[in-house]
Amino acid sequence: MRRTLLGLLGVLMAVSLAAPSAHADTTKIRTWIRFTPGVYLTYDRTATVTGTVGTYLPKGGGAPLADQTVLINCSNGGCPFHEVTTDAAGNFTVEVHGDQGIDVTAQVSDTDALEESIATTWIEPKTFAWLEASFSPAAIPPSRTTTLSGRLRYLGRDEVTWKPLPGRTIHIEGAGISTEATTGADGSFSKKVTFPKMPAPAFPMSSVPVEFWWTPTTTIDKTFFDRDATMSADVYPAKVTSIVDFGGLLNPSGTVTLKGGVAGEVNKLPLKIQYSKDGSTNWTDLRTIQAQGPFSTTFTPPAVPAYYRAQIVTADNYLGSTSRVVKVGTSVTSVGGFTASVNANHVATVRGTVGPSGLKVPVRIEYSSNGKTGWHTAKVLTAGGAFSTTLKTPLNTGYYRAEILSAKYYKGSTSRVVKAGRTPTRIAGVKVSATRVKKNTYFTIKGTLQRYLSGWKGFKGQRVRLVFHIKGSKALHLYARPLTGTGGKFTAKIKATREAYWTTTYLGATGYYAYNSPKYIRVTLR
């Protein structure tokens, strides 16, 4: 699980796992911990996390808890295990550092007067990058050469100061150029470029944007910046048109949809839709639409199949162009990237992608006990493009597929068959190095986590839980979460501070059942 309830630094942190006894002391005061939301770990690798500790009042509401010790622990080395004390308003502050997400856990320990409370907040690495760019001059001179410059910065921890991002590659593309520049120590960049000769007699004062962008590529940059930094700067070449991304699709209803885009900084202009039966001769005007940028048109086709193209006729202030030719006939469907997984609640999640793009069709989710015969329908949904749906698993372990049935205007298809279910697990060979030890000395617990795959085999890379309860109490406490290694083996070193009963558990994972050991091992002091 991505977020860790309590990290381990060899320190005992107790978490009550059992329901309170019917004879529990009801005079204790209930406490609560709330973190302030909206805190992110910036590219400065640091963040200030704040929270409040309070108590529930007998008649409702709450009150801050001042001068209260709070145990703090962070995942991924974000902070050492330490204590902080709340101020008069019940507030506390934690400084975290790191280059990846951090779980910050705060705990008020159980005392004679207070009930224990625990809260965890996820500090996500997130920073805003800002890209500036411009041309000088912006209007292209007769030499068609100009200088572009800009700067790449990020917003610092104080959310006021912008700091440079040196050594990053800035991509520049548009108006016939495609190049790159690298930011310097102050985050700035500069590049002299020459535009190609424009196929027009003059440069009307209608701007064309040139796109600048920086894409995070290193692991650190991808962690802190979740999107590209983009910018557009205008130049003034002639108005040259082109039709891009032209394509067509026969819809399940029998109509045809054609889509594309008019490139170039132009106002709305007439766009002719033409068709031909052979794709090369006898082109016939079908309709004319007004287009600027992306366009789409739907109509009843004159024939199936047929060939289509879009055409802009040259006018006084722009050059015309013709799109590529596309054939539109019966669509051949596909279901790609099909997957299935089962969670701890026996709910299956199936995902896939319906093709071709833009086609929405009924998709039938089916299951089988052997993956070959006896297929049954589990669910039917309508999907176009990527889809995801959930269903209650009909079998502990089963095979799944997605199927599109053929219809009049498209051909059906079937996805690959995938197996999904939950595999049993167990913890075997749990032993302690000694059952009677001196106080404040150490002993070890060892064991093996196994999963059943045509026999019991070691299960590597999982977290098992080492828990204990003291004599005379049923409350379970978490001591450690050792990671299983080769062969599923795990070891935990324990400091003997009191007589206790120890056992191991495994909470399970996607595709695996949880396992709870019924056996406790008593370790006494001498």
Automatic annotation (TrEMBL):
Signal sequence coordinates: 1-24
Record keyword Signal present: yes
Highest taxon above the source species: Bacteria
Keywords, alphabetical: Signal
Protein name: Carboxypeptidase regulatory-like domain-containing protein
Organism of origin: Planotetraspora phitsanulokensis
